[in-house]
Amino acid sequence: MAPRFILFSLFTSLLLSLSLAEIRFSDIRSDDRQIIPFDEFGFTHFGRLELNVTNIRLSNPNPDLDRSKIGFFLCTRDSWLHVINQLEDGEITCALQSDLIKPVFTFNDLKKEQNGLSKIVPQNDADQYTLVFANCLTSLKVSMDVKSVMYNLDRGGKVRDYLSAGKTILPRVYYLLSLIYFGLVGVWIYVLYRKRLTVYRIHFFMLAVVILKTVNLLCEAEDKSYIKRTGYAHGWDVLFYIFSFLKGITLFTLIVLIGTGWSFLKPYLQDKEKKVLMIVIPLQVVANIAQVVIDETGPYGQDWITWKQVFLLVDVVCCCAVLFPIVWSIKNLREAARTDGKAAVNLMKLTLFRQYYIVVICYIYFTRVVVYALETITSYKYLWTSVVAGELATLAFYVFTGYKFKPEAHNPYFVVDDEEEEAAAEALKLEDEFEL
């Protein structure tokens, strides 16, 4: 029972990953796993799989081995669930025996002394498929070099599209988003120029974050565009990882700095706030390393699941860490509002930080839930919608942050009269109202 559950979990984790198929080179060395998922790909009715396997070596060279139980196949998520049931019910003893999969080839097809095999498989049934290697022989270790190429053809059969059917429009999406962010950069520069007398250092930091996000989207657009046309990123993936790293660090740092009220509330950071930054920044480094490993090795790597778990753990820790400075600022503002005689101004600041706390929570957690749900339930043809949803949420967060913390003469806010001051003082007496 446990091995079947492990196989199901491994396969499912691949299906819920964000990796995009392209021309992939995979080195398998002395691997005894029963199931090794490679890439997933959304085929149209004009799909092709080109599989080239070389340097095949088995730990047991016995010629009497049943090599029909070692090989490659294509399988959809729904089909895999039924294959698991067949294995559990004893209808079959190996996934390659199921009539629900699409066999590519088994090692039984290898001729004597042959250590490699190539095959082109037309795929005319449109769906999301995963290329899987199965080894149903106990304790047999396999070594091989695998080159997998999956693509769709246009109706004329001439132009190849190496992006999955559900993500083929991503280059245009990223180009459009980069233009939107470029417009935001222009707007923010204009705001900083118009309000230059009340601009703080945090506002220039905001500008840097938006610029990095713009460049990151442009690099991602070029990355996906080259993969779509050629199957290779041609170096754009390196630039994408670099700017993703910088964008991730600066964004989390910005949230921490805003949460502490640095620059526009106070020109310094307390020791505990510095410690948060010292935690978040190294964790972002680890997260980006994990993301590179996840994207570049693919799920065939033996440590792929481990790196996936590391990335998720680090992501959760970072998201939790950035909330503490906001909570501290809310606590300090609540205490100051009752002691410094500026109840109305502090009430406005307190309300602003409470709003920001709620927005950060929604952006960090609810956005991830929505994106995960879309990846899970959306048809393979519309997997791009999860990317769009995540990017639109990020755009909304950037706009909200810029609008709420824009430079103002009486930052954060405006002049109040005596009546408003008295009303605010009364409101602050209701302590429970301001509890998180």
Describe the structure.
The chain is an alpha+beta fold and 436 residues long. It is built from eleven helices and nine strands. It has helices at residues 2-15, 77-89, 170-194, 201-230, 236-260, 271-297, 304-321, 323-337, 343-377, 384-404, 418-428; strands spanning 24-31, 35-43, 47-58, 70-75, 102-106, 117-123, 127-135, 142-153, 160-161. A hairpin with a 6-residue loop joins strand 8 (142-153) and strand 9. Helix 9 crosses helix 11. The protein is elongated. It starts with a helix and ends in an 8-residue tail after the last helix.
Task: Give the helix/strand layout.
Layout: H1 2-15, E1 24-31, E2 35-43, E3 47-58, E4 70-75, H2 77-89, E5 102-106, E6 117-123, E7 127-135, E8 142-153, E9 160-161, H3 170-194, H4 201-230, H5 236-260, H6 271-297, H7 304-321, H8 323-337, H9 343-377, H10 384-404, H11 418-428
Antiparallel strand pairs: 1-8, 2-7, 3-6, 3-8, 4-5, 4-7, 8-9
Helix pairs in contact: 1-2, 3-4, 3-10, 4-5, 5-6, 5-8, 6-7, 8-9, 9-10, 9-11
